[in-house]
Design goal:
The structure is a single chain. The protein is an alpha+beta fold. The chain folds into 2 domains: about 70 residues, OB fold (Dihydrolipoamide Acetyltransferase, E2P) (Beta Barrel); about 150 residues, de novo design (two linked rop proteins), CATH 1.20.1440.120. The chain contains 6 helices and 8 strands; from the N terminus they run E-E-E-E-E-H-H-H-E-E-E-H-H-H. It has a 5-stranded mixed beta barrel with strand order 1-2-3-5-4. It has a 3-stranded antiparallel sheet with strand order 7-6-8. Strand 6 and strand 7 form a beta hairpin. Helix 2 packs antiparallel against helix 3 and helix 4 packs across helix 5. The protein is elongated and about 65 Å long.
Amino acid sequence: MQTDNPLLEPAYILHYRPYRETSLLLELLTEKHGRISAIAKGARAKRSMWKGVLSLANPLLVSCVGRHDLLTLTHAELNGRPVSLQGNALFSLFYLNELLMYLLHRFDPHPRLYAYYAQTLVAMEYATQIEIPLRFFEWMLLQELGYGLSIDKLAATGEPIDVNAHYQVDPEYGVMLPHSTVTSDRDIYTGRMLEELANYRLTDDPKILHQAKRLTRRLLDPLLGGREIMSRTLYK
């Protein structure tokens, strides 16, 4: 990437770690350039102008310069109210950020996903059931990456699913009627859950939420290529 005269653009920090004596190495999700890496020089110094700014869940405006994959942060400021996440909501943030770091290519912008990420952080801040915004974000991520399925209709006929029926979901084919050889409930999903997830309106029903989690995990795990999501362990 070549950035010589950058303008401020919206961004969130996905991850940061110490770099050399006083700097930070940032992984950023930006609206216009996608995922980027940048060095924030002097960010850990006592008199850093970025104290209290470079934190997870803070909506930012940033600018970076550089001609390679590792850029240099030249400006960062708050772009709205910081989102306060604690407990399971904070672990969920770690999880979302890990997914994005593993699954998004550098400099591949997804402005729609960026906007939904911002909405999801606010939703998690106020959620009484954190699983609902998590499942919605996972589903949106799959759509953006090109791995989404039409789960509100049968793949073979296009016929709408019956919310009172049960179905199988093939990651490459779509929704099917259950085969007679299916022996595990783990391979079966209710039409109600499929219809709710497809329309981003999951209800606070433990069975529905468990099925939705099974489905999104089944679709996401192959994309991760065996890489372990550490925040899943924290969230258990």
